[in-house]
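Hey, can you fold this one?
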Amino acid sequence: MSDLEPASRSRRLILLGLIAVSFAAFLLLLVLRVGVALTSPETTDSAGRTMGFNDRFSAEHYSILVRNFSLGALFQREWFYEWILAGMHLVGLILLLSGFGYGRRFTRVFFFAQAVIFPFGWIGFPFLPGFLANLAALKLDRESFIDVPFLWLTAQPIWIALAVTIAFLMPGEPIRKPRPQLTLKPLTPS
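Sure. Predicted structure:
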């Protein structure tokens, strides 16, 4: 990054920060979702509250989900699409860090393409603000994680929004090159 002008360097850091925010949100949401899958509904917190059907999760329940998360569980076929999402974060990071990819047309196309690669993420946009507010206010229950395609409705919309934002903010070549103007010369008799 040392070959960049200070303004371009700071813009690149902002774009890298957007990827980091998206990846951190993805990891948190993935850990919670896998934790729910690996936690019995009969599990109780120190106050004796269960994590069963329609039981609202407490802060301690979230810590139980994090403790029950297992990286090994991610190697099941069920989580294949999440590996693709993680891989896209990594590819985006590499493109922004490399001198070859930053500011190039194909990098901009890559980030715009995320909206097509993860089409189900669009479904989550209307629900995401309310869901995140309920997550922060500890108003979610087991069904909030299991009865819906959880990561499609949460992590994918965040990635789509930030990837498209990166595509718009990244300096460099536009997606479409302007067509050269043809100039017609008048015919002169020779």
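DSSP finds nine helices and no strands in the chain. Let me know if you want another pass with a different chain boundary.
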